[in-house]
Amino acid sequence: MLIASLLAVGYVAWPIATALLSAAVLAVVLAPVQARLSRWLRGRRAISAGILVLAVLFLVIGPLLGLTTVLVKEAADGVRFIQDTVRSQGVVGLVDKLPPPLDGYARNALESLGDLGQLAQKHVVEQGPRAASAVAAALKATGSLVFDLAMMLIALYFLLVRGRDLIAWLVGVSPLSPAQTNQLMAEFRKVSYAVIVATVATAAVQAAVAGIGYLIAGVPHPVFFTTLTFFVALIPAIGAAGVCLFAALIEVATGHPYMGLFLAVWGIVVVGLIDNIVKPFLIKGDLEMGGAVVFFALIGGIGAFGMVGLLVGPLAVAAFLTLLRMYRRDFIS
Fold it and tell me: Mean pLDDT, the chain, as a whole number?
């Protein structure tokens, strides 16, 4: 009956599991800040929790959500523009709207392709419904993201206010001994701190290295692109290299193909690989895991669970190793 009820609770919580896990991790990281803020506010934990939730909303979630919305909107407008132009004017009309020197490169490509240009035009027209459905799916995913973020903020507020009571309750009802439960809780706190700190630090390093590339390539508004790189680096599905490739495309479109090529290589080889080196190195410094174990835990977690796998992967491995140590200590020795 206990297992059946646990499965039922898991089934009910699964739609908002990502929001709850993210809220729990943020609550652990923000707990010391809230304790200090509550002392300044003379023990008003609810007010301090509200201030921290608003800070998370305006400083982190707001920019990320705004960036996601802009990307989806621009992608939808771009797909619609390409479809309308190709239907009315053909591929040649689309090429005429490209900025120099891209239009020259595209015309040469069309002339060398010959009949393949007409085939490409036919393919674009035929794939219109599929592209529209992809845009609709992206819009739906954005709406789901907004819902998850709202649930996360609500859960974060209650965890900040009643987190201590929840931990005490878990220690009391857990089938493990209080010492074992507290050890698992301590491991969860340790992994949460390590992942959050490593993610932010890695994003800052990637933004700094990308900023050097922007300065070398002469990208317009390098401060803006560096800031954008930092926020995009927090999104595992996109990554900081995506901003570098976009800036490289701007360089090519403005008549600097060699600088665009340099920036593309810089973004993929240097900026892109930093995430796979710096983040595991920082995480393993706080956890009792090898660098290779942390690396595959991150990659496997993201592959299995998406963005939240950045947390689930190391947490799953850390929980497994902690339970193994408990078993050896309490049941074998």
Answer: 80
